[in-house]
Write a structure and sequence with these properties.
binds zinc ion, alpha+beta, 6 helices, 5 strands, two-stranded antiparallel ribbon, 40% helix
Length: 164
């Protein structure tokens, strides 16, 4: 389903935050967002899935980049491998990511379109993210934090999250 960036933008404003401060805010309370070089690696390997990354925010939320921690890189890459392989080999329609982010502690991978099989891959990846540390990728002692921002972290990374 298509989500507009305007909703996202107004949400931030509604909470008293300017969009320019969003990344500083998230970094402070939730940890770092995915490193630019890792994001670029995904964009280079799967240019068709991430075609919307260069579009303006009036057209897509993909302009924000991959809005998760580094720890979910492998999960997102595995999902892209499956999706693109199926598109190229089994005559599925090319899908494009419209927003990739963390919400309520788990991965959200929104696309412009998906059929049942593609939707199944995405649901599976989103469900797996609940047991993978968003910060370091470990699946050891992973839990969700309580509080205003729910975060999925291993016990070591959980210690580093600053309290709201
Ligand atoms: Zn961790």
């Amino acid at each position: 389903m298509r989500k507009t960036c305007r909703d996202f933008y107004f949400n931030i404003l509604g909470r008293g935050f300017d969009s320019r401060h969003l990344h500083h805010y998230k970094k402070k309370y939730k940890g770092d967002i995915m490193k630019k070089e890792l994001q670029e690696k995904l964009f280079k390997k799967y240019p068709k899935i991430f075609r919307q990354r260069t579009l303006p925010m009036t057209e897509t939320c993909m302009c924000w980049g991959i809005d998760t921690g580094d720890g979910w890189y492998n999960l997102i890459e595995t999902l892209c491998i499956l999706l693109q392989w199926d598109i190229d080999n089994n005559e599925h329609k090319q899908i494009e990511a419209t927003q990739v982010k963390e919400k309520y502690g788990t991965l959200r991978f929104y696309t412009d379109y998906n059929d049942d099989k593609q939707s199944g891959y995405i649901d599976f990846a989103e469900a797996l993210s609940a047991n993978i540390c968003e910060e370091c990728g470990s699946n050891k002692d992973v839990t969700q934090s309580n509080g205003a921002w729910i975060s999925t972290r291993c016990s070591e990374c959980m210690k580093k999250i600053k309290k709201f």
